[in-house]
Design the sequence.
């Protein structure tokens, strides 16, 4: 190959890398901010719901999260809870003890139970989403 051809190929490759970098920058700039972190014991409003995470424990292969939730009558008021682990997202077990289900205008206590499987690690983040709002609690690291 001639030198001129090699130089032209180098310029084309450089432009391709530049375009790819700009595309990646635009993708990263368009991402949503992560939900804000809330301390355990701190009450927070998420949409029309008031939520307080009172405590966390682990028993019989499940993570138990004691919460107080209320603010509106909703048969599915607690459906927005998920537990994020290195192994993936875990939905609460609806058959566990004092399960959180329907909510009322009164803030009432209940317990979310998240069954742990293999490979879930020790990092756990509870996320609650109501409408367009999300909050998270770092339960362990």
Sequence:
């Amino acid at each position: 190959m001639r030198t001129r051809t090699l130089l032209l190929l180098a310029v084309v490759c450089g432009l391709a890398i530049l375009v790819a970098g700009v595309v990646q920058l635009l993708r990263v700039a368009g991402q949503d901010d992560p939900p804000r972190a809330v301390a355990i014991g701190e009450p927070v409003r998420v949409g029309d719901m008031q939520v307080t995470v009172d405590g966390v424990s682990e028993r019989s292969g499940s993570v138990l999260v004691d919460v107080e939730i209320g603010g509106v009558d909703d048969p599915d008021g607690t459906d927005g809870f998920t537990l994020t682990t290195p192994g993936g997202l875990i939905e609460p077990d609806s058959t566990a003890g004092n399960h959180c289900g329907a909510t009322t205008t009164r803030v009432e206590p209940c317990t979310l139970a998240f069954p742990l499987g293999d490979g879930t690690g020790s990092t756990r983040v509870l996320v609650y989403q109501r409408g367009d709002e999300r909050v998270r609690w770092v339960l362990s690291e």
User: Anything to note?
Assistant: The chain has one helix and nine strands. The chain has two domains: 1-31, 37-140. The domain at 37-140 is CATH 2.60.40.1240 (Immunoglobulin-like).
